[in-house]
Amino acid sequence: MDIDKSLDEIIQAKPKARRGGRRGGASAPSSARARYAGAVPKAAAQAPAAAKPLTADAIKIIISNLPADVTEAAVRDLMQSTVGPVRTVQMAYNSAGKSTGVATVLFKTRGDANKAHATYHNRMIDNQRPMRVEIAIDPNQAQSLASRVAPQPAARAAANQSRGARGGRGGRGAARGRAPRPAKKTAEELDAEMADYKQTAAA
C-alpha cells in the first residue's frame, strides 16, 4: 500500500491483475473483484438494512475496519472533502502504539453523521475490506425512562384514592352498610318514659 495516497484514493483504487492470468488466456483481474471494486460487497448488499438512527441530526460517527496505515489526517481529509466540516478526529491505538483501525469523527454540522453513514458504510477499501460506519447518538437527546412509562390507569388511581380516604374501622363499616348503634338512655329518661306510659294506660 502506498502511504502517500489519501484515503479517498485508496477507496477508489482499482484491483490489480492476478499473476499468471487465466488458463489459456491473457492475464485479467478477478471478475468478483472487478464487480465490487469501490462498491458495497455482495454480502453487505444482501444483508438487512441497518436500523434507522434515533435522531436525524447526529454529528458523531465511529469508523472501524480501517487499514493500520490510515491516519487521522487521512480520515479528516476524506470526511471534510466529501461530507462536511469536521470538528475533531480521534484514532484509537493499542498499548504498542499501533492503530486499531477505529476512528471517531465529530462533525460541526448536525446531520452530517447520517450523511457519512449513507455514503461510506460498507464501502470497500483497497478492494479487500468494507469500511464500517456507525452513528453515535447524543446522550442528551435520549429519552428518560420515566417519559417512556405509561401513566397509571384512571380507574386504578381512583380506587387507590378512595381506599386511602376511608381508612379506619368506622369508614369500612359505613362502606359495608352497617347501621350506627343507638346511644344508651339515662335513668331519668327511662323514668319519664315509664310515667308517660302509665298515664296513657290509665286513660
Automatic annotation (TrEMBL):
Q: Does the keyword Metal-binding apply?
A: no
**GO terms for molecular function, please?**
mRNA binding
SUPFAM superfamilies reported for this sequence:
RNA-binding domain, RBD (SSF54928)
Q: Residue limits of the RRM domain? A: 59-138
Specify residue ranges for compositional bias: Low complexity.
146-164
Q: Which Pfam families match?
A: FoP_duplication (PF13865), RRM_1 (PF00076)
Region ranges (Disordered): 13-33, 144-203
Q: Which UniProt keywords apply?
A: RNA-binding
Q: Name one GO cellular component term.
A: nucleus
The family database entries (SMART domains) matched by this protein are listed as: FoP_duplication, RRM
Q: InterPro entries from the xrefs?
A: ALYREF_mRNA_export, FoP_C, Nucleotide-bd_a/b_plait_sf, RBD_domain_sf, RRM_dom
Q: Where is the composition biased (Gly residues)?
A: 165-174
Protein name per the record: THO complex subunit 4
